[in-house]
Amino acid sequence: MLEAKTKGKEVKMNVMLFAIPAIGDVINSTLSYIALNFITGSVWQMFRGGSLIATFVLSICFLKMKIKLNHIVGCGLALVGILIVGATGLIFSD
Question: For residues 24, 30, 33 and 35, what is the CA-based torsion angle, rounded to 10 degrees?
Protein backbone atom coordinates (compact mmCIF):
# COMPACT_ATOMS: atom_id res chain seq x y z
CA MET A 1 0.00 0.00 0.00
CA LEU A 2 2.81 2.37 0.84
CA GLU A 3 4.57 1.39 -2.35
CA ALA A 4 1.48 2.25 -4.40
CA LYS A 5 1.23 5.68 -2.79
CA THR A 6 4.86 6.49 -3.55
CA LYS A 7 4.23 5.66 -7.22
CA GLY A 8 1.31 8.09 -7.27
CA LYS A 9 -1.43 5.49 -7.50
CA GLU A 10 -4.66 5.92 -5.58
CA VAL A 11 -5.41 3.18 -3.07
CA LYS A 12 -9.04 2.53 -2.20
CA MET A 13 -9.84 0.46 0.82
CA ASN A 14 -13.25 -0.76 1.92
CA VAL A 15 -13.47 0.26 5.56
CA MET A 16 -16.70 -1.72 6.03
CA LEU A 17 -14.67 -4.96 5.93
CA PHE A 18 -13.49 -4.09 9.44
CA ALA A 19 -17.07 -3.68 10.65
CA ILE A 20 -17.93 -7.39 10.38
CA PRO A 21 -15.34 -8.68 12.90
CA ALA A 22 -15.81 -5.57 15.06
CA ILE A 23 -19.54 -6.23 15.39
CA GLY A 24 -18.81 -9.86 16.21
CA ASP A 25 -16.38 -8.76 18.92
CA VAL A 26 -18.92 -6.38 20.44
CA ILE A 27 -21.55 -9.14 20.55
CA ASN A 28 -19.02 -11.56 22.05
CA SER A 29 -17.94 -9.10 24.74
CA THR A 30 -21.53 -8.23 25.62
CA LEU A 31 -22.59 -11.85 26.00
CA SER A 32 -19.43 -12.67 27.96
CA TYR A 33 -20.00 -9.92 30.49
CA ILE A 34 -23.65 -10.90 30.86
CA ALA A 35 -22.54 -14.48 31.54
CA LEU A 36 -20.04 -13.23 34.13
CA ASN A 37 -22.98 -12.12 36.28
CA PHE A 38 -24.25 -15.70 36.52
CA ILE A 39 -21.04 -17.70 37.07
CA THR A 40 -17.87 -17.30 39.12
CA GLY A 41 -14.89 -15.47 37.74
CA SER A 42 -12.65 -18.53 37.57
CA VAL A 43 -15.17 -20.50 35.51
CA TRP A 44 -15.72 -17.53 33.19
CA GLN A 45 -11.97 -17.09 32.67
CA MET A 46 -11.44 -20.77 31.89
CA PHE A 47 -14.30 -20.77 29.40
CA ARG A 48 -12.69 -17.80 27.69
CA GLY A 49 -9.70 -20.08 27.20
CA GLY A 50 -11.99 -22.22 25.07
CA SER A 51 -11.31 -19.84 22.22
CA LEU A 52 -7.94 -21.60 21.92
CA ILE A 53 -9.69 -24.84 21.02
CA ALA A 54 -12.13 -23.12 18.67
CA THR A 55 -9.24 -21.40 16.89
CA PHE A 56 -7.42 -24.72 16.60
CA VAL A 57 -10.42 -26.49 15.05
CA LEU A 58 -11.27 -23.62 12.69
CA SER A 59 -7.67 -23.27 11.51
CA ILE A 60 -7.65 -26.97 10.64
CA CYS A 61 -10.96 -26.69 8.76
CA PHE A 62 -10.47 -23.44 6.89
CA LEU A 63 -6.72 -22.84 6.72
CA LYS A 64 -5.79 -26.50 6.24
CA MET A 65 -3.18 -26.20 8.99
CA LYS A 66 -0.89 -29.17 9.47
CA ILE A 67 -1.38 -30.65 12.92
CA LYS A 68 1.68 -31.24 15.07
CA LEU A 69 1.87 -33.26 18.27
CA ASN A 70 2.49 -30.20 20.44
CA HIS A 71 -0.70 -28.58 19.09
CA ILE A 72 -2.75 -31.63 20.00
CA VAL A 73 -1.18 -31.91 23.44
CA GLY A 74 -1.68 -28.20 24.17
CA CYS A 75 -5.32 -28.20 23.10
CA GLY A 76 -5.91 -31.43 24.97
CA LEU A 77 -4.51 -29.96 28.19
CA ALA A 78 -6.59 -26.82 27.72
CA LEU A 79 -9.69 -28.95 27.19
CA VAL A 80 -8.99 -30.99 30.32
CA GLY A 81 -8.54 -27.78 32.33
CA ILE A 82 -11.78 -26.33 31.01
CA LEU A 83 -13.66 -29.54 31.80
CA ILE A 84 -12.25 -29.70 35.34
CA VAL A 85 -13.09 -26.08 36.15
CA GLY A 86 -16.54 -26.41 34.53
CA ALA A 87 -17.32 -29.57 36.51
CA THR A 88 -16.08 -27.95 39.71
CA GLY A 89 -18.33 -24.97 39.06
CA LEU A 90 -21.31 -27.27 38.61
CA ILE A 91 -20.57 -29.47 41.62
CA PHE A 92 -19.77 -26.71 44.11
CA SER A 93 -22.22 -24.06 42.91
CA ASP A 94 -24.24 -22.26 45.55
Answer: -90
Q: Which residues of 13-34 are buried (b: 16+ CB within 10 A; e: fewer)?
A: eeeeeeeeeeeeeeeeeeeeee
Interval 47-87: pLDDT, tens: 788 888 888 998 999 898 899 999 999 999 999 988 888 88
> Percent of the chain, pLDDT > 70?
94
- CA 83 – CA 89 distance, rounded (Å): 10
What's this model's pTM, rounded to 2 decimal places? 0.61
Residue pair 54/90 in contact (Cβ under 8 Å)? The answer is no
d(CA 73, CA 70): 5
Distances (CA, A) of 25 to 22, 33, 43: 5, 12, 20
Q: How far apart are CA 35 and CA 39, in angstroms?
A: 7
